[in-house]
Amino acid sequence: MAKKDYSNLTKDQLLEVIEKLEGKKKYGLVWDEERVPEKVVTDCQDKLPVLTEVKDKEITTDENEPTHILIEGDNYHALSVLNYTHKGKVDLIYIDPPYNTGKANEWKYNDKYVDENDTYSHSKWASFMFKRLSLAKDLLKDTGVILISIDDNEQAHLKLICDDVFGSNNFVANIIWRGGKRNAAKFISTSHEYIIFYGKSLETISKLKISWKVRKSGLEDIYKQYEKLKKQHKTDYEIITKELKKWFKELAPDNPAKDHEHYSTVDERGIYFPDNISRGGGGGPKWPLKNPNTGNFVKIPSRGWAFSKEEDLIKAVEENRVHFSGDGVPCIKSYLKDKETQILDTIFYKDRRAASTKFKDILGDGVFDFPKDHEVISYFIDALSPTNAIILDFFAGSGTTGHSVLELNKNGAKRQFILATNNEGNICTEVTHPRLEKVINGYTGVKTNTTYNGLGGNLKYYKTSFVANNRNKDQLKIDITKRCTEMLCLKEGIFNLIKDEADYKIFHQGNRYLAVYYDFANASLDELKEEMNTLKGEKVLYCFTVDTNGLDKANFSDWKNIRLEPIPQKILDVYKRIFKN
Q1: Which residues, in sequence order, are CB contacts of 296 under 8 Å at separation 6+?
Q2: Which of 68, 80, 65 is nearest to 461 (CA)?
Q3: pLDDT in tens, 64-74
Q4: 223 shares its domain with 337
Q5: Cα–Cα distance for residue pair 200/210, rounded to 1 Å
Q6: What CATH number is given to the structural domain containing 133?
């Protein structure tokens, strides 16, 4: 790597270099971020990103279902917009960024592909990721989490970047996804990749006692077999237990139900596992206890009973919650129905090939290589976010995260996804959007000819566009106010236009209403007031003003039950923070 030539720098320039060097951290990942500035970032000095809706790509199936968002454009610009519309609102981020493997045509920096011959490939990748993760962090709720897929090429670097952005104290786990062997490997078959997992604030998550659990795999098959045996043998629990144990024994080793083989004993309450009845750590009470079936005293566990009160132990026996096996130490019955969830594990197996097969049935061959498995992403979204969560993916690719959310919502959840992707190789227009459209509306499998019912939902499609950063600040305010309507709709989650006038617009969503007033002279403000005062429900008015202090509420005293928001100063404040202009 060539050394920098400082010989022609002035004293002031040398002092500036020294200050930068002294200001750099002494531990962690350090990269040359100034040598090749990123064009999409520097462009924002001269133009500010906004959104423009593409109406002919809108999908509407049911106004009562969530409206999902797809943004076509560079994700740096999309994240900048979202810093105004969704700061502190996102529950979960999942991204699958470029892995920087050095392969040709993998990812671009400043419109040029980065390959193994690029001396600064790691610095470019680190700078690229750091900027986007820094913007993404501010979008997360304090209880939010981020999951990032990566492989060995940048895993170590990404961990250090995330420690810097999110704080090493908010690191949760480095999850290993075993996805099947690749026999074409040069030296050793790599059968895994990683999902790096951070929380926005583990302190907040702990204080709120939030736990991340998933439903155990294979339960449906177990319950199905149990119901079948119960139908055959009625209340003969001894026979049902014998047949259930036999069924478990005959399962294939990779069947997920096999993991729960210890739950194979049955009584009138259902399937249970004879669990340890002794006090953990020892020191438990040692009251005598009779086996009600034999009348003999049973052996007392060496660590004593787990119960604090003798009457609780007796009650458990009377309620048939204690499993006796002769006169040895009995067990407590642990029922499967009470143990259906488990905490996440750091290692899981899911063959990667299955995702490609399913994807090809939606869009056909040769459309997109190596899509992520929507069942895996669904698994994590379901475990780590509430059912009304906002889910963000700003490396949306083939749209797997969107598909995952739609799949989860079919069971009554109301999660909303926001996807952002560029349109390199027409990926957004020819892959992401068509996939989502098919999954929402239904389709016939390209490969299987199977008919798949639509999962429902609504979709708004936006493109990033720009407003010139006019040095005349009042003119800039006028210009951005004219172009910020889609951002305001996105911020409020109110999208349906019901009134479109030259000076103002009114939107609604259910019983919520959004008005946007653009006119500097306020000539038609009274007209808008009359319109809004007739509406019943939650109302908000975004009103243009050049005053940096916002709106004078006294001027709106006769507006009924309305929240006031000035535009565009708050948008400009966000961009000033991000772009430093």
Answers
A1: 290, 327
A2: 68
A3: 899 999 999 99
A4: yes
A5: 13
A6: 3.40.50.150
Six-digit token string for 567:
């535009």
One-letter identity of residue 59: I
Q: Is residue 510 part of a domain?
A: yes
Domain count, the chain: 3
Cα separation, 441 vs 52, in Å, equals 24
Length of the chain, please? 581
Rounded CA separation 565/568 (Å)? 9
In angstroms, rounded to a whole number, what is the distance separating the alpha carbons of residues 334 and 338? Answer: 8
Q: Does residue 10 belong to any structural domain of this protein?
A: no
Q: Rounded to two decimals, what is the model's pTM?
A: 0.87
β-partners of residue 52 are: 463
Asked if the structure places residue 501 within a domain, the reply is yes
Same domain, 486 and 563: yes
Tell me which of 412, 439, 461 is where a domain ends: 461
Where are the strands (E) in 469-524, listed by range? 496-500, 504-509, 512-517
State which residues form the domain around 383: 56-148+156-167+353-461
Low-confidence ranges of the chain (pLDDT < 50): 1
520 within 8 A of 478, measured Cβ to Cβ: yes
* Same domain assignment for residues 429 and 478: no
Q: Are residues 412 and 476 in the same domain?
A: no
* CB neighbour burial string for 148-176, b if at least 16 within 10 angstroms, e if fewer: bbbeebbeebbbbbbbbbbbeebbbeebb
For 205, 213, 338, 405, the CA distances from 342, given in Å and listed in that order, are: 18, 5, 11, 21
What is the Cα–Cα distance from 21 to 37, expressed in whole angstroms? 18
User: How many angstroms separate the CA atoms of 171 and 523, rounded?
Assistant: 54
For residue 488, count other CB atoms closer than 10 A to its CB: 24
What's the CA gap between 29 and 157, in Å, rounded?
7
pLDDT of residue 50: 98
Distance CA 222, CA 227 (A): 9
Cα 69 from Cα 419, distance rounded (Å) = 6
Distances (CA, A) of 137 to 75, 87, 164, 175, 419: 14, 9, 11, 20, 16
pLDDT digits (tens, 9 = 90+) for 157-191: 999 999 999 999 999 999 999 887 666 567 787 88
Does 4 reside within a domain?
no
Taken in order 542, 547, 552, 555, is the CA torsion positive or negative? negative
DSSP 4: P
Q: How many H helices and E strands in the chain?
A: 18, 25
The answer to whether 397 and 368 have CB atoms below 8 angstroms apart is yes
**Which of 341, 361, 392 is the C-terminal boundary of a domain?**
341
- The answer to whether residues 250 and 328 belong to one domain is yes
Per-residue pLDDT at 67:
97
Amino acid 12: pLDDT? 82
- pLDDT the model gives residue 1: 45
Contacts of residues 504-511 at CB distance under 8 Å and 24 or more positions apart, as own/partner, are: 504/528, 506/531, 506/532, 508/535, 509/63, 509/67, 510/63, 510/64, 510/537, 511/536, 511/537, 511/538
